[in-house]
Write a sequence for this structure.
């Protein structure tokens, strides 16, 4: 493979990118002037150095001081420490932050669990979550863990797996486990709602 | 216009049918043998005679006796009469019945209200609903009216309009007004949830 | 099944209509006033009486006199009788007429042939086409038969089947067999063209 | 903007990438191990050095020797030099090569011309094409220039613009100008064909 093909291969590994678009990316870059490419390559190196994984929530964050090991959200003293919201990935964290609906702490799971996964700990950060919950439960400030996963088969399976892993820690400590409410989401027409959503929407009526 | 064009015109009035599909319907019918067409025309007459609008919930239903004026759901004595669910249209009623989530009574509104509608009573059966609520409140069995409308701008507007129309009747009678719960609907990924849905999902967590 | 369900069943037989839209059609009709339904049923009967199949091109047409047995296109003396265009269905005929590209005669095949069809004569009007070609070849006016079928596997298969059926008639009579040209169709981007289309587009360049 | 946001900005400039997918790319890269990122940055530098623009057809190609200034296609002595195919972009060149339909030379235009473009020479390599045609016409080997542009308004406009620019050079030299043939493209159903395509398909029948 020549350099064009090898770069296209790299782009094919990107989420949602097929062979045609990978090629288009290569030609797009080739058509750019040299400084765009240099900046881009530079930024790739820079981002790796500038970014660290938060020791508490496991989220990627841009370090502001060399010794910082917790992200701004975990370091923010005004955040409510009584709730811990478990999300799948960084983009979900950003979606919730943008909504302004939540002011507590987070944990980034790093994935979801397919129903028949043999080695769950290689897929999601279940052990890291256990350790965090153990520590936070000991401190006594944690009151509730909120599972904010997608309303999909895999999201539900992941939640049930985590509930059974965490319950031995949370029950003695009086920490509640909760899940985002189900119901009609914005824009959904009643006619196209499934039975599960209707049952939940009816149970959650107010 | 000749007969083919006039029949195509009729089909163009059907919901979701454009000129091309309307024509396709006509040729589909022409290619069928005579008995299909006769049966079809016969069924069209029959359905009009066989079907009545329920005097209580305003739903179309197939009459089983000539004098029946209430649909089987409204006539069903095992149905819970303490709740009345307001839906937009027949298909919504069927969706909810199929889900098995609800065992109370219904009211078919016949449409929704666009935000700036000047003559709401020509669009939806608000007056019929008022009359029904008045009668049911007097009997004393009605405890709750559930608005089961789509989670859309028009659905929300319609619900607020009806709430303000009904409150003078329901408040003195101690009848509650409620709305289907909002939250993540089945299949929704967190990443694609809007702020409104997330807020509701968080408030409805359990 | 009651009358509503039976009418919905009929609509489900319509091309492209699923169970949900079939139900929507029924409720649409029920909500219409009586005269719409009467007109509709009347039109269904009328169209069957008013429409005949042309004895020459097999197309449905609206009879203008009781004894007319040929459609206006076949009866039009200004039409060029030296070419006969074979199309799949009425809607294709209309598409070509609307384009204004063709002023000759037509034949409506009534379908296409799936590759492994055992009884081709039950699927398409191959025998009727043979009879017409035989008669027209005898008259001596016919010079060319143009296959105007879809550029699909089934369209191509149908064309090859008809070519081998017709050749014994057309070759002795000096009637040419032709097919619509392949190439880039309007709106097609080069990047999304398949090899077959490109080869044809290149061969047909001008 | 921090490093994550700046890298996301870069990805937003890529063809077809919105803000959400740009972010997803950044987190995808952050989750990869260090060596993936290093390889990727390295490849970006390498590709720029390894790739040159062909002095003849203006295509990007991977240099095999330091002094090579013509791409393998232009340097290939077995290629037919009597035809020159003008395409919009590299991906179109690849599509045609993959089809195996063409064995002549190419010219990469670098874009198409919107109908009201004031400065056409900043959008497409019209001047470079003129220079090439002039040189090739002088040599005497060039017989035909084939415009292989998309069958779109912009493609047609670009072709007409180039025809009028090139004619003063090609007419005296006896070089023909041609365009890919129009007609039914593979998979197109007759019913969905536009008038233009039908006219061309009929004219190109065979």
């Amino acid at each position: 493979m020549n350099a064009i093909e090898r770069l296209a291969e790299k782009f094919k590994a990107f989420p949602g990118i097929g062979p045609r678009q990978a090629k288009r990316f290569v030609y797009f870059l080739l058509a750019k002037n040299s400084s765009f490419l240099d900046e881009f390559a530079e930024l790739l190196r820079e981002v790796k150095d500038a970014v660290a994984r938060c020791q508490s929530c496991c989220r990627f964050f841009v370090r502001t001081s060399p010794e910082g090991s917790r992200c701004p959200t975990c370091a923010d003293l005004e955040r409510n420490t009584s709730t811990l919201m478990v999300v799948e990935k960084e983009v979900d964290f950003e979606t919730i932050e943008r909504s302004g609906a939540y002011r507590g702490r987070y944990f980034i799971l790093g994935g979801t669990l397919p129903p028949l996964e043999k080695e769950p700990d290689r897929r999601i950060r279940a052990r890291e979550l256990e350790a965090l919950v153990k520590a936070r439960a000991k401190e006594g400030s944690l009151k509730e863990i909120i599972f904010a996963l997608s309303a999909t088969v895999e999201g539900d399976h992941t939640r049930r797996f985590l509930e059974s892993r965490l319950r031995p820690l949370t029950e003695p400590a009086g920490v509640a486990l909760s899940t985002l409410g189900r119901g009609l989401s914005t824009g959904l027409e009643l006619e196209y709602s499934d039975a599960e959503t209707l049952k939940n929407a009816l149970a959650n009526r107010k």
